[in-house]
User: Fold this.
Amino acid sequence: MKTQQEENEDISNQDTSALLKIEDLSKYFGGMAAVKNLDFHVFTGEIYGIAGPNGAGKTTLFNVVTKFLPPSGGKVIFNGQHIHKHPPNKICELGIARTFQIPTLFESLTVYKNALVGAIYGKGSEKRDKENLVKKNLEFFGLWEKKDVIADELSLYERKVLMVATALTTEPRLLMLDEPTAGLSKKESEYIMSLFKKINAEGMTIMIIEHNMDVLMNISERVMILDHGVKICEGIPSKVCDDKRVIKAYLGERYEVKK
Ligand SMILES: Nc1ncnc2c1ncn2[C@@H]1O[C@H](COP(=O)(O)OP(=O)(O)O)[C@@H](O)[C@H]1O
Ligand SMILES: [Mg+2]
Assistant:
């Protein structure tokens, strides 16, 4: 068996243009494959969209990449390092932050303290200007005026953006968003997406799981469609929407990408 250093040396001899490389990744629950022999890359600076029917394995993929669940097999390579052997806190330190489908906050803490938890985490956190980092991110998401409100009292929209703000105060290189617009109004969804576009324009690589096709196809440079844990299609939005397997498994009818 190869040591971690040998594995990392192997990688350094390969193509390193991808920030995240998923190789032959599987996750089984008993005999059921939630993610099966999955291969894909996420390139630095892109917005990579993921969609597929309920139960397709999208959230499980996020759970395995961030090690909330151990993989059954395969590799997760981030920024040239094998990370699937690391615990979630180490993966966060290395530069991956995620949000959850159901808002997950420290309910009894204030908005400010929630965001501060992110700032305390991560590589080089001791050198960070935590107060400014928290302020900058809360302002960006329109939460600064609510900084002393207890998280439990926030609206769904505020809860969702606080989760993203907290993820960003860890200063990640890759931001993974699990259905960020679920439950939000059209206006809220459009606004939150415009914020993600801004974050991306400033250099953040984003992976986003999204059911809303208008949202996903508009924001993503490339999209992957999962079905029963398997990648059935990957590519630019117009190509993916034209794919017969995608129409059959997910879209139901042909979806026109809106300009
Ligand atoms: N912790 C778990 N234990 C057992 N089965 C799970 C667990 N998490 C997810 N699953 C199953 O794995 C499959 C994929 O689920 P999930 O990743 O949540 O799908 P998606 O996010 O695409 O809707 C589903 O059949 C789900 O019931
Ligand atoms: Mg899910």
In short: The pocket of magnesium ion (ligand 2) is lined by residues 58-59, 101 (CB under 6 Å).
